[in-house]
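Usage example:
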Amino acid sequence: MNERTMHDLKKLGFYTLIFIVIVWMGLPLLVSTLYAFGTPDDYYNPHRIIPLHYTLETTKMLLFTLGGWEALKNSIIVAVLAIIISFILGLPAGYAIARFIFPGKDTIKLGMLALKVFPVPIMAVPLVMLYIKLHLIDTLLGVALAHSAASLPLVVLITASIFSGTSAELEEAGMVFGLTRFQSFLRITLPLALPGLAAAAMFTFVGSWNEVFAASVLTFSHRTLPALMLTLMETAPDYYKFAAAFIMAFPAIVYVAIARKYLISMWGIALK
Amino acid sequence: MVEVRLENLKKYFDRGRVKAVDGINLTIKDGEFLVLLGPSGCGKTTTLRMIAGLETPTEGKIYFGDRDVTYLPPKDRNISMVFQSYAVWPHMKVYDNIAFPLKVKKYPKNEIEKRVRWAAELLQIEDLLDRYPAQLSGGQRQRVAVARAIVVEPNVLLMDEPLSNLDAKLRVAMRAEIKKLQTKLKVTTVYVTHDQVEAMTMGDRIAVMNQGKLLQVGPPTEVYLKPNSLFVATFIGAPEMNIVEATVVESEGLFLEGDGFRIRLPDDFRELLEGYIEKDVLVGIRPEHMTVKGVSTLEHVTRTAEIEGKVDFIEALGTDTIVHAKVGGNIIKIKLPGHIPLPVGETIKIEIDLDNLHIFDKTTTKAII
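Running the assembly step on the lines above writes:
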């Protein structure tokens, strides 16, 4: 076997692997999308694997009659609030960890990760009690706070690594040429860190979007999308489940696609 | 443009365990080009950062003229700085990089335009104003950093090893250019480097630092010819100064006796060496302050001594020849002008310029002569 065929074989193996990964992830998505819009008759027809007749009725029903639209809006509000809260708290912490040396730095970093060890179900009862006392129960802010707590350690660690990746000298140059430390952070470090911060925001968004346990426990009338779908799907026919899956997945896919493009095309140049 | 005065300046890190800068007193004159020279970790960059305001001193004061700036933030000091990594902002075009200090200080728009053009022209980067830093070479980025630093007419211009990331050829060219620029602008400049050639060629005065302390401050030739300590003597000069051990001996005249040599010292050395009779000292002589008898002669020399050695190795540099001679157990390097092919193993007579002989105390390493 000469080098050329070795090279071709490697290439073939590589593309086969990529194909398998795409099929693995894409096929279920495709099938559930098809079923989501297929008519109930086609779905229950045992001679059809792929539906031939399509309808928007199921989706419409879910969105407008069963409260899906409201829940979708709630989910977006909660996710955005979670991003805002965890960034307001996490960004300064990440900056401090990246730029300064202070006692207990490693302990703090480790401690934040240790918080993730506690499973949410264990904290559920005390959390509900606390929320009732604070009048946060069944509010979107309450769910957002719970989601922020979950994503905060990640936000802190991700932003810390992003800030240590942007040179301190660039920021110091800002200070030398007339800015305060905070102004220099806003005008120099922040724009440079933006791609990385977008990634952190993406994690927070997806985390909040998919989170169902805390959302189910903490709300009853103001449900987020996954919480609502979970309740509805206990009794709904199968094709509703596929429609629900589509409604859940679609906004997240759109968001990630946008954020991803943003990640790559900042300034039109690669910042490492 | 101001005079900068450092008074007993100290910076300790790690709760006093690391003394980065340990009590520096230094006055940088108005318009002077002062080079802070020392090995890495000697505290020179920390000193510069304290002048910039990026680091708060543990103790001591910094004055710009009569103004105490010790605790002022960098933005209120009217300084400029060229960073080692250039620190040219990657998300701004070259024009915006240079204009930034002016914009922050709220200069009128046409004035900004005028000054940016002036600085760009001075550094020959007019054609690059529209580009992003990622599209520039290292040397061009360096020019942008310098242009940004001079565009505001700062009180003090600070440079932190600005040439260390350039290749050798560019470094030599930029060295001359920065020096010329500074002479033209007459801005008080503090320049940090570990490169003794940069220090020698650029500085009006050199301040040599080691382990957080200032060892010697003076014009380049003075620091070179009259080093006050063993560290300064060996740190500056390439090839470095020859150092050998010897004993001061008094027997019908004053002698330095060492492994394989005996030098008669002039009588006027006696007073300075009073306390060192029969004691060990370190003797230093620069390679160019010696010659090989019969091959070339020392010029402008009044008093010489002669020792014997054996050629051990020849380094031919083209313009110069470095002769490695074995004297007793020591290897002495002698720098001769021109190409001189001495055969290895030959016995030679080495002539030493006694007026450029240095003698150091063995324990304090301070210069006696």
